[in-house]
């Protein structure tokens, strides 16, 4: 069984089927991408996996256990974290504080210990501070640790989002259009960051429109069109697939 298993997942909005009977697996340690034209159901699929939407039918299994219907925080506790197409940072907090926020899922001291500052809580805060500093160094953000996020260029804000998502050491990281809004140079830097994240042992599932980026970094690709899976395979296979070519270049482009 795959590390993440999507089984016959369905979700509709009114009369529109956004995701229809989609199935695929993600192997541990892989970089897998989900692509498709606008309206293909990619972000809806991510929301179903991450618990922001509830499937109408089908199942999502992670490490051979169903997470169907779990709330987002429970899924995060299992080791699945995500980023968003629109960067969701605390713009008036510092870079360091934003990364520290990402570590709340690792907290174990509890409310009462936090109130009285027991040694367990103090030790936890120290460990979180060390981990946050590691992430800033990992993503080349140490020089702006005390800078408000709103003062950073877009590309570095994306790096902060990556640092926050990676700080709790997720087993699976969902990246929703990480290259959105980036220029060519920033996209190249992003590709290096994704490879660095992958080298830590993190499994990655990516939704993205930038085909050059996806073909460069992915082990396998799933293609959606109008909520249905139309192809799955290695990048070289997807590039030659007639149905994929039709969807992107022909009548399925609408």
- SSE order, one letter for each helix or strand: EEEHEEHEHHHHEHEHEEHH
How many beta-strand runs? 10
The helical percent reads 25-40%
Write down the CATH class of the largest domain. Answer: Alpha Beta
What's the shape? globular
> Average pLDDT across residues?
87
- Contiguous low-pLDDT stretches (5 residues minimum) are 107-116
CATH superfamily of the largest domain: P-loop containing nucleotide triphosphate hydrolases
What structural class results from the helix and strand content?
A: alpha/beta
Task: Describe the protein in words.
With 254 residues, the protein is an alpha/beta fold. The chain folds into 2 domains: 4-79 and 170-253, P-loop containing nucleotide triphosphate hydrolases (Rossmann fold); 91-157, no CATH class. It is 39% helix and 23% strand. It has 10 helices and 10 strands. The strands form 2 sheets. It has a 6-stranded mixed beta sheet, with helices on both faces. The protein has a 4-stranded antiparallel beta sheet with strand order 2-1-4-5, covered by helices on one side. Helix 3 crosses helix 5 (119-138) and helix 3 runs parallel beside helix 6. The longest helix has 20 residues, at 119-138. The radius of gyration is 19 Å and the shape is globular. It starts with a strand and ends in a 5-residue tail after the last helix.
Question: What brief labels describe this structure?
Answer:
single chain, 4-stranded antiparallel sheet, 39% helix, 10 helices, 254 residues, Rossmann fold, 10 strands, alpha/beta
Characterize this entry briefly:
The protein has 254 residues and is an alpha/beta fold. It has 10 helices and 10 strands.
